[in-house]
Amino acid sequence: MLKLLRPAATRVLSPLGRALARRGISPNVITVLGTLGVAAGALGFYPRGQLFLGSVVITFFVLADLLDGVLARMLGTTSTFGAFLDSTLDRVGDAAVFSGLILWFMSTGQGVLAGVALFCLVAGAVVSYAKARAEGLGLTCEVGLAERSERLVVVLVAAGLGGLGVPYILAAGLWLLAAASAFTAGQRILHVYRQTVPT
């Protein structure tokens, strides 16, 4: 769904991409810095209960996930390694976001929500792995209700609003995300099954 917004985001980020391209900055550097920023924001603010500030910082660095692609296209340096690095570090960023929330839930005695956040982390990894494994086998797997972009939007909006004092929004967002992630994993498994098992 959020893929539809990518062209608009690319137009917004293009001036910054051109400025970075003139300075010869590598897209891989942007990828690494973006991941470090996400991890620092999530692990620095979330465990202390600073959910709104943490979400703002994380959102800022998540934009690097779009900026590195814009920069690579401008420099003509799109590469297999760049795509691999980007996808790999996405998992690191996701782990940091949910780990930060889990640490906060545990420190405040919210064990159930810590478990839900852990489920969201694991289910999100399964969703991403299912697609990567399918494509590695030469199959297609472009299906799913909750891809990484959607999952990030849900958790960051829910955490941010929760940090502003909106009641129950974080819990509702995590339960919704857990259900959507499990459903998406099932969608992808079924999609691959239909491609590989004769009917």
UniProtKB/TrEMBL annotation:
Binding-site residues, Mg(2+) 2: D65, D86, D90
Q: Which family does it belong to?
A: Belongs to the CDP-alcohol phosphatidyltransferase class-I family.
* Name the record gives this protein: Phosphatidylinositol phosphate synthase
Quote the cofactor binding remark: Contains a di-nuclear catalytic Mg(2+) center.
Is the keyword Membrane assigned to this protein?
Answer: yes
Q: What EC number(s) does its UniProt record assign?
A: 2.7.8.-
Subunit and interaction comment: Homodimer.
Q: Give the gene symbol.
A: pgsA
